[in-house]
Amino acid sequence: MSDTIESLARRVKTLEDERDIARLIASYGPLVDSGDPDAVAALWAVDGGYDTGDWQMSSRDDVAAMVRSEEHRGLIARGCCHFFGPPAVTVDGDEAVAICQSMLLVRRESRGFAVARAGVHLIRLQRAGHGWEIVSRTARQLDGSGLAVALIEEGLAR
């Protein structure tokens, strides 16, 4: 009986970790679209990295600077939505890997939105005292180059 309870406790902990990580990833879009640099940066470890392919960030401060940038502020002023699909999460103790797809929708002049980007994100996380945080995040466009497919393969190989 004791083994069953321990097994159930481990399984519940894994489910809670997966839920917490999915919630962290899902919060990025609303936070970045609201232009809250400190809340977005708090998703990362202090020295966590974010590689968009066009932009290399290597700290919370760099992530906050991206949210404060003229380019990002312009997206918000125009109307945008960073939308993320559900992540496939693999937890291994105090470390985890997640893979998900995203779209950046940008408002057109008068009606509707257009897809500006579609991509894949490979996210490595670690458990910290306050919960999970991003150690590294690599994003690549689904542009046919194969770079996004390589991230998918890496993220699902666990």
TrEMBL record:
InterPro entries in UniProt: NTF2-like_dom_sf, SnoaL-like
Annotated SnoaL-like domain residues: 14-138
One Pfam family per UniProt: SnoaL_4
The protein, known as: SnoaL-like domain-containing protein
Domain of life: Bacteria
